[in-house]
Design goal:
globular; mainly alpha
């Protein structure tokens, strides 16, 4: 049955991603766990592999359009790739020792990560909507021509990359917040840079998850079949749809999902 329902559900998730920019992993992984009763370890690994194709396709498009900052992508990737592989290494260690239930740990981690990403994004959206004149203290802009700027960028990439390796969540959302806070990229380059660094990060993360043996290709292929055209359609609808009401609704859903993930662990 999931061969029919999974592409359909993934199509709607793809529309939401293309329409709002909210990360697919925050929606697809909980969908696999709650709707299709997939064990969390398999859901995370399969989603990482499935998300890679969407990000790679998007990054190639932005590369052709020159709507990305190559230097930012490079230095973030230098941290995020080894960071994500270390996250996968932690999963290997947990599985090998057998002292803890991997699925239970992943449920908690997924819930916490989705809740954190949702809260940060929701706070940002509320401030933009109701307090547009409110100016938060600006964080220092990172200069990649300096050793300090490069070191801090690599460190940020490593920390966030580790969380992506562990949970599959935040390859786009958390990095987007970093790009806004520390690099002040314009809107076009923000999206292109975010997608491109996520493509590199997920490419290596998916290779790591393949070594875990928890990737289920009978889930990956239907997700690809539904989500890729969904993202393309969502991007088209994005030009006419009201963004803020949609984001409020999706954030509310994500908060409920994250709390359910934590409570079920």
């Amino acid at each position: 049955m999931h061969y029919l329902l999974l592409p359909l559900f993934s199509f709607f998730v793809g529309i939401i991603v293309g329409l709002t920019g909210i990360g697919g992993a925050s929606l697809i992984t909980p969908m696999l766990i709650f709707v299709f009763q997939v064990p969390p370890s398999i859901a995370v690994s399969s989603d990482v592999v499935a998300a890679t194709l969407m990000k790679v396709v998007g990054s190639v498009k932005h590369w052709q359009q020159k709507t990305l900052d190559v230097e930012v992508v490079k230095w973030l990737a230098l941290g995020s790739v080894p960071g994500s592989l270390s996250g996968v290494g932690i999963l290997h260690l947990i599985r090998r020792t057998g002292e803890h239930n991997l699925d239970s740990i992943l449920l908690r981690l997924l819930g916490v990560m989705i809740l954190l990403v949702t809260l940060l994004s929701l706070i940002q959206l509320l401030l933009m909507t109701f307090l547009p004149q409110f100016n938060l203290p600006e964080l220092p802009k990172l200069d990649l021509k300096t050793n300090w700027g490069r070191f801090f960028t690599v460190t940020l990439g490593a920390v966030l990359g580790c969380f992506v390796g562990l949970t599959s969540v935040s390859s786009g959302s958390m990095f987007a917040l970093v790009l806004i806070a520390f690099f002040r990229l314009d809107a076009r380059k923000l999206v292109g840079t975010d997608i491109s660094q996520a493509a590199i990060l997920l490419l290596f993360t998916s290779l790591g998850h393949l070594t875990l043996g928890t990737v289920d290709w009978s889930l990956v292929l239907p997700i690809w079949l539904g989500s890729v055209p969904g993202v393309l359609l969502g991007a088209k609808i994005c030009q006419i749809a009201p963004q803020r009401p949609l984001r409020f609704i999706i954030y509310a859903i994500l908060m409920m999902v994250s709390l359910k993930l934590v409570s079920q662990a």
